[in-house]
Amino acid sequence: MIYTFEINGLPVQTGDIICTTDGGRPILAGEFWRILGKLVPGDVDHVAMYVGPAGLCVESAVTGVYAFEVIGSTWDAEKMHSQRLFLDTFYGVAYPLQDKSLPQDKEIKIRAGAAAYCLKQAAANKPYNLNLLDSQTEDAFYCSQLIYKAYLPHGIDLNTGLAVPNLKGAESIIFPQEIWAGCVHRRAEIGCILDS
Asked: Is the pLDDT of residue 191 over 90?
């Protein structure tokens, strides 16, 4: 089943990708995650998949792959901290199937399949993948690798080859920023929504 929801004024459907930047409010824990986010190229440091119903999402973070619930329709990392154990700030939503001119039945199948893949990894309690260069493993996942692997069997390749200069093999890393940049997306701003 395909679900719809709204986060910070942006619409999401099952399979859409929530993009965040590390760090939260100016508290010590928020500053730790903000510093960690500086190691990731681009503005987007983390991604999660909206699966539904209501605010149900799946992500991979330090504790591995798990499901969590967006409380209400506003991204509040502090309220979700007990579920997620880290702080981030909502950046926007990436829509990997938008503008693909897919027949509706195929789009529904891809959305449902990508969500089922992520839920399966969460149910299996897959660990976090510390080897960012191994984006092909299915034994462990980092955030953007999970999203990449969920869409790949459906012919949607979210690896654009973004690499870190002077790091051999970095083109195999799936960065959150390249998922953002490689998809139609909408960015949320305080008090307004910007299309980009």
From this structure: no
- Give the domain extent around 18: 4-195
The set of residues, in sequence order, having a beta carbon less than 8 Å from that of 8 and lying 6+ positions away, is 73, 74, 75, 90, 188
pLDDT, position 182: 92
Gap between the Cα atoms of 33 and 195, Å rounded:
27
DSSP H helices, 124-174, are 143-151
Write down the pLDDT at residue 163: 59
Query: Average pLDDT, stretch 135-145?
Result: 95
Q: How far apart are CA 74 and CA 18, in angstroms?
A: 12
Q: Give one word for 177, left, alpha or beta, with left for phi > 0 and alpha for psi -120 to 50.
A: alpha
Q: Are strands 64-69 and 56-61 parallel, antiparallel or unpaired?
A: antiparallel
CATH assignment at residue 110? 3.90.1720
Residue 55, Ramachandran bin (φ over 0: left; ψ between -120 and 50: alpha; else beta): alpha
Looking at the structure of the chain, the number of domains it has is 1
Contact of 114 with 74, CB cutoff 8 Å: no
Arithmetic mean of pLDDT, 11-25:
87
